[in-house]
Amino acid sequence: MTLFTLFYLCIALIIYILAIPFLFLLTFKQKYQHSILRRFALWKNPAFEKKGVWFHAASFGEVRSLKPLISRLDSVINISTITQTGYEEACKLTKNSRYLPFELLLPFWIKKQHALVVSEAELWYLLFLVAKLKGAKTYLINARISDNSYKSYLKFSWFYKKIFAQIDMVFAQSVKDKNRLLELGAKNVIVNGNIKAFQEIEVTRTYTKPSCEVITLASAHKGEEALILKNLKLGDNQKLIVVPRHPERFDDVDGLLLNYAKKMGLTYHRFSEKDNLESDVVLIDCMGELINLYAISDIVILGGSFVEGVGGHNPLEPAHFGCKIISGKHIFNQEALFSLVEGIEVIEIENLNSDMKELHGTKITSRTDIEPIVKVLT
Questions:
Q1: What percentage of the chain exceeds 70 in pLDDT?
Q2: How far apart are CA 44 and CA 151, in angstroms?
Q3: Contact of 141 with 118, CB cutoff 8 Å
């Protein structure tokens, strides 16, 4: 064990002890009830039983993007994740799904795997180190370093060099990402695009297209619904469908939409209470319906882009159906995907109503090839 690793373990232990009271409080929040004990106490979260290809992805979108890749592999598939929605999606892909434990617990939890494949920016030192020590080949896929985070990475480049020393191969989203990764010590870097561009887009439930213009506010984050509603004047022949990003916010968004509908003289209902799209304003307070709604949408307002810190969301899904797409300017996490779609309107929020009149349909101009990743894993 190196001196750095020993020091890192000591710091992780201190953080773990100090965090215990906060972790206890988080167990009372719905968002974390299912994950806290599993991640920090290994409760009902055993190590993977079988040796195979182990994928780790942080949350729902990253896990979902793995499906086409996993479908091409003839191996035992293990998946770890961090969020509850990510875990639920992982369980659809394999019964060998787990929550990734806190780093301090990884040396006791990780068993030998053929390969560890980590998605995007999940750069955990002990995750790569322990997996490698136990015989796994290590890969980072869909790797990116956004403009917003680049300076922070550079400040701690000495630390990231330690992490990249444990990673055998990196698949980057763009040439810009490759150059930044090399600067931080990555080796064997291949530019392969964003694997979300290879993702299968499937309608699981068919809705009848309303006779009016359908506007869908998709994957909205805290503060975005209020911002959109403040700047949106819904016309007589328009319907607004709102799909919040996180389930724990459904009740808060319900209050916002109820007040908006009353103020504007519109009808409103929650989808969980009335399973249709008849009202002028509808809150989709369930998971898994967004793609189905894209299929009947005329205009999609992509959330995660009107507030700082999120970095946008995947435009390929609404573009698949030729929807007119509006986005805010904060898209630093999705630049590679935005470059694949023609016709997206990036706006200032105060211009929402006027810009909406000038929209054109979108189309996907190219796709990503995942075969290079498949090749190294088979």
A1: 100
A2: 39
A3: yes
Q: Taking the model in full, what pTM does it have?
A: 0.83
Distance between CA 252 and CA 342 in Å, rounded?
34
Element holding 227 (H helix, E strand)? helix 224-231
Q: Count of CB atoms within 10 A of residue 135's CB?
A: 12
Extended strands (E) in 92-227:
97-99, 115-119, 137-143, 169-172, 189-191, 213-220
User: For the segment 206-250, what is each residue's pLDDT rounded down to a tens digit?
Assistant: 999 999 999 999 999 999 999 999 999 898 899 999 999 999 999
What are the residues whose beta carbons fall under 8 Å from the beta carbon of 124, sequence distance 6 or more?
A: 100, 103, 106, 163
Compute how many other C-beta atoms are within 10 angstroms of the C-beta atom of residue 247.
14
Distance CA 245, CA 301 (A): 13
C-alpha–C-alpha distance, residues 233 and 236, integer Å: 10
**Domains defined for the chain, CATH in brackets:** 3-192 (3.40.50.11720), 213-364 (3.40.50.2000)
- Cα–Cα distance for residue pair 134/111, rounded to 1 Å: 7
CA distance 152 to 204: 41
Query: Which phi and psi angles does 188 have, rounded to 5°?
Result: 50, 55
- Contact criterion met (CB below 8 Å) for 141 and 373: yes
Residue 369 pLDDT > 80: no
Q: How far apart are CA 292 and CA 296, in angstroms?
A: 7
Neighbours of 209 (CB within 10 A): 12
Query: Tens of pLDDT along 302-334?
Result: 999 999 989 999 999 999 999 999 999 999 888
CA distance 268 to 277: 10
Is the torsion defined by CA of 147, 153, 157, 160 positive or negative?
negative
Confidence of residue 149 (pLDDT cuts 50, 70, 90): confident
In this model, does residue 360 exceed pLDDT 90?
no
Spatial distance between the Cα atoms of 233 and 281, rounded to a whole number of angstroms:
12
Dmax over CA atoms of the chain, in Å, equals 68
Strand partners, 85: none
Q: Read off the amino acid at residue 71.
A: S
